[in-house]
Amino acid sequence: MANTVKDVILRGRKTVETVVEEGRKTVENVVEGGLNTVETVVGVGLNTVETVVVEGRKKVESAVHQGRVTVENVLIRDRATMKAAVLHGREDVRIEAVPVPEAGPCELIVSVGAALTCGTDLKVFRRGYHARMIVPPALFGHELAGTIVEAGEGVTGFAPGDRVVALNSAPCGHCYFCARGQENLCDDLLFNNGAYAEFIRIPARIVAKNTLHIPDDVPLEHAALTEPLACAVHGFEDSHPQPGDTVAVIGGGPLGLMILHVAALAGYNVIAIVKHEGQVEAARQLGAAHVVQANNIRKAIQETRALTEKDRGVDIAIEAVGVPESWEEAVEMVRKGGTVNFFGGCAMGTHVTLDTNRIHYSDITMRATFHHTPAMCRKALDLIASGRFQAAAFITGHAHLYELNRVFEKLMKRGSEIKTAIVP
Ligand SMILES: [Zn+2]
Ligand SMILES: [Zn+2]
User: Fold this and answer.
1) Is the pLDDT of residue 1 over 60?
2) 123, 63, 40: which is closest to 87 by C-alpha?
3) CA 235 / ligand 1 centre spacing (Å)
4) What is the pLDDT of residues 19-36, one digit of tens each?
């Protein structure tokens, strides 16, 4: 074979080193040039592939979306009945065929994409009624997001095909409380139920005041968290936290976890006080700096205080269980000058016993935040859309409407379930 190293040396009187050196240079040149080229190609190719994939997905999604809307529109026009959960009494929910709702003036009909289970619904399921919200037989469920299939005469700002979250209530806007910005206390708060169904009618007032467009990249089931999150944000802000505060949140249910997550995202030092094993990990994941797990209230108070300097107590304690004993516990956890928020609503007719001296001489502020306002609902959806809020962590299961009874039975056993997305 010609041109071996030996030939080259003989012909050109080159040394081995020169030949090797030249060879290396050539190889390096090739490799270098090649790498650049390969990298450039790969780079350009990847970008193109990704762009194509993203674009393609968008097109497919919007086609599916459009298609579904069209199909649903057709379905809703051709159908007289839909499947819906009807509450008949204590632990008695039946899936029945009920008339498909029709949009009156300024109303919307929304095809439910996801309806989330909630502590309130669980209470309603267990008790068979709700003093303010539900008298059976009635449709129920109130945390939902979906797609508009019909817009009544006079609706502005919404059209069929729009993805929306429609809140469970809306204030009147002109009573004494609404005028003072305390819309959660509105004398004529209008409630809407019926999320556990294929379609739901959104009354005109909720359309006008508390129906929000969902950004494209936010899944419906995440957007459905707007209602409970609005309550959580309201409760937290209403406690008037100051930078550097330590906030104790009592209760590891969906709302306790949401409040602690909101506080942690805002940079506060959070202590979670939970009962069940499954809640410990969730509390940690959502940003609690410390988790106190205690079945005994005395112990919980002691352990929480021990986490503050000189056992002085926390700056803010938010009660999110809704039992009198735990309200009393919250008062015992705060420092002098601290704030207690009785966020959890207790059963009707219950009372608490509080140490008057402690409240007076320690200058304790007490609040009890209820529900949400339109401003809080917007803040909540913004927080979900920001991507900082771990929406997925709150939805621990999915089930079909037909499985609703089983889902509630499971939730009553208090495992590690937070919320289940019910898909009709
Ligand atoms: Zn709820
Ligand atoms: Zn009002």
Assistant:
1) no
2) 123
3) 14
4) 667 766 666 665 665 655
CA atoms within 13 A on the CB side of 417: 20
- Cα(360) to centroid of ligand 1, in Å? 34
Q: Please determine, for residue 215, whether its predicted confidence score (pLDDT) is greater than 80.
A: yes
C-alpha pair distances (Å), 287 with each of 239, 335, 363, 415: 19, 22, 29, 20
Kindly give the distance from the C-alpha atom of residue 181 to the centroid of ligand 2, in angstroms, as a whole number.
9
Separation of 122 CA from ligand 1 center, angstroms?
10
Nearest ligand to the C-alpha of residue 144? Answer: 1
The strand pairing partners of 187, in sequence order, are none
Q: How far is the CA of 228 from the centre of ligand 1 (A)?
A: 5
CA dist list (Å): 79 to 93, 97, 111, 249, 361 = 23, 11, 13, 47, 66
Query: Tell me: the pLDDT tens digits for 142-162?
Result: 999 999 999 999 999 999 999
Q: Which ligand is nearest to the CA of 209?
A: 2
Distance 210 CA to ligand 2 centre (A): 14
For position 303, what pLDDT does the model report? 97
- Sheet strands side by side (includes 92-99): 92-99, 81-89, 138-139
